[in-house]
Design goal:
about 50% helix, 5-stranded antiparallel beta sheet
Length: about 575
């Protein structure tokens, strides 16, 4: 029982494409030492560029390697390995600061207006919403660590590293992290709906002609982009955690009641959340080295009658030490048997790695290498590792899944490309994946961009890729390409895309809203509705104080249903 299978997954055995290894467990069981040893093993045996990241606010990697680390990747003196200590709180604060800066920009959108105190009230309403979002965001359990993980994914996508090992915070933080993406996504979607509603009314009622309105348009786009990017980053974290090919979770424990019980709960939660736990490291074992009960009884008998050849005090101390280790052996055997009997461990019994209690303190690179040897029996050979190919350029993780999820494309463009090549005509800018090249198989699986359309004589088109750090153009047939994304077509003679222009159709609908018979009748039937409409026409930001008013819900719901922003 060892980590051999984990190392082989890292070099692509069993069709695995291992990118992320989480190391977690109860505090004080050797989690940081284990994650450091795992990263050292991967760097040594797998021909991969490894990044070891601590997301635990109480960092210990610097102590484990006896090196100083920061939030920038630094080599500890081990080839192919870099280490960084990310402060999740600091990462989260930077995110909150972005929203604070945006709030200031929004406040500045009223510069040059003549509204005076009224405009102050308008901008205060907007700022209040931003501040409420900041407070809500910072209060979500696990949000700081999730934000740090989201930034770590960028290291893989940029092709700086092939695999990341996470030294995580103790179990409680991990469990919060598992449920966080759904909570955060729901909140962001709610805010996206709010900002769409608010900006839609503001644009309509204020008009789009002034310089302040142009600033509002810019702020509107920035809010939308920030929300979408943040949502996408957190969605990637959720997909990463549940990725059965790219992600593994290694649980660390010791053979004692509290640690084994917490390990079972963690394994149960990981399974519930579809996170693949592949190995369990059990540290500080004395099972093999301690005396059995019979051997201890024999030693105690020798000590009782004494010996002319041995110092009696030394013999007594030896017996006392052996009693301690034998008692510890009995406790550990009990809880090891319990650990192996759990339903949660049934499928990973071969992945239980038993590590002995060592006489030395495990700090520094040499000690970590010695410690790591206890975790493997038959590591990959140099020949096996050499056959593992590193990424040749930047990669996009989960973008396809997110696009399908967010657009509702159940079948996806890839199936369309594979199923019916004739249904797609290659255009410049289309993204494709290369497949089924027999003689140049090294390019299979790489993604590229169409740079020249289909040639009628050769039936090939040009595909630009990144390979071994260099740009290369291949002439490929349709059968060797799968469509990932079609290029967005520009609209208008000036070449601006539709996304970059204000939409006139929703604006005209909004301007006509108050003349709609149903809306007009609804407003006339309720004095409060009438006063609110008049208030919003004269002071558009007054809308903020009405949007959460239950009495205004019938009018707002009816209006938004007709506007369809």
């Amino acid at each position: 029982m060892s980590l051999d299978s984990l190392l082989r997954s890292a070099i692509g055995h069993n069709n695995d494409d291992l990118k992320f290894i989480f190391v977690g467990g109860k505090g004080g069981v050797g989690k940081t030492t284990s994650s450091s040893a795992i990263a050292t093993l991967l760097a040594q045996h797998c021909n991969k560029r490894i990044l070891l990241v601590s997301t635990d606010p109480a960092h210990s990697l610097s102590d484990a390697f006896r090196c100083e680390f920061s939030n920038e990747p630094t080599s500890p003196g081990v080839e192919n390995l870099h280490v960084m200590e990310v402060d999740p709180t600091e990462t989260m604060q930077r995110e909150l600061n972005k929203w604070a800066d945006l709030a200031k920009e929004i406040a500045a959108t009223n510069d040059g207006n003549d509204g005076g105190a009224e405009d102050d009230g308008e901008e205060n309403g907007m700022l209040q919403k931003i501040e409420q979002f900041q407070e809500w965001l910072s209060g979500i359990p696990g949000i700081d660590e999730a934000t740090a993980l989201s930034s770590a994914i960028e290291h893989i996508e940029s092709n700086k590293y092939d695999l990341i090992v996470f030294d995580t915070a103790p179990t409680g933080h991990t469990l919060k992290l598992l449920g966080m993406p759904d909570i955060l996504q729901a909140g962001i979607e709610k805010l996206q709906g709010w900002q769409s509603t608010l900006w839609g009314y503001w644009d309509v009622l204020k008009g789009m002609g002034s310089s302040a309105s142009q600033k509002r348009l810019h702020a509107k786009e920035e809010v939308a982009d920030m929300l979408e990017n943040y949502k996408k980053g957190i969605q990637k974290v959720a997909l990463m955690l549940q990725d059965q090919r790219r992600t593994r979770f290694v649980v660390v424990c010791i053979a004692e009641f509290l640690s084994v019980s917490e390990t079972q709960r963690l394994l149960r939660e990981l399974k519930k959340n579809e996170v693949r736990a592949s190995h369990i490291i059990v540290n500080q074992l004395v099972v093999d080295s301690a005396l059995s009960n019979d051997e201890l009884t024999e030693l105690e008998g020798l000590a009782e009658v004494g010996s002319l050849m041995l110092n009696q005090e030394l013999l007594s101390k030896t017996v006392h030490a052996c009693r301690l280790t034998t008692a510890r052996k009995g406790i550990q055997e009990k809880y090891m048997a319990q650990l192996k009997s759990f339903p949660e461990t049934e499928a990973i019994l071969d992945g239980i790695c038993e590590v002995p209690l060592l006489a030395e303190e495990v700090t520094g690179t040499d000690a970590l290498r010695r410690f790591a040897k206890f975790m493997v029996r038959n590591p990959p050979s140099e020949l096996e590792s050499a056959s593992s190919t590193a990424s040749s350029g930047p990669v996009r993780l989960y973008d396809d899944e997110l696009e399908k999820k967010n657009t509702g494309g159940a079948e996806g463009d890839e199936q369309k490309g594979e199923g019916d090549a004739n249904s797609w005509t290659p255009s410049k800018g289309d993204s494709v994946k290369i497949k089924e090249l027999a003689k140049a198989a090294q390019y299979n699986g790489l993604e590229g961009t169409i740079v020249s359309t289909l040639d009628s004589e050769t039936s090939r088109c040009g595909v630009q890729i990144e390979y071994n750090g260099k740009s290369k153009t291949l002439a490929l047939q349709m059968k060797n390409m799968v469509l990932l994304h079609q290029a967005k077509k520009a609209k208008g003679e000036n070449g601006d895309t539709a996304a970059s222009l204000p939409s006139e159709q929703p604006m005209s609908k909004a301007m006509a809203l108050l003349e709609d018979p149903e809306i007009k009748a609804l407003v006339e039937s309720n004095p409060k509705f009438k006063d609110a409409v008049e208030d919003c026409i004269s002071n558009p930001m007054s809308f903020v104080k009405y949007i959460s008013d239950p009495e205004m819900a019938p009018l707002i719901s009816k209006a938004m249903a007709k506007l369809k922003f």
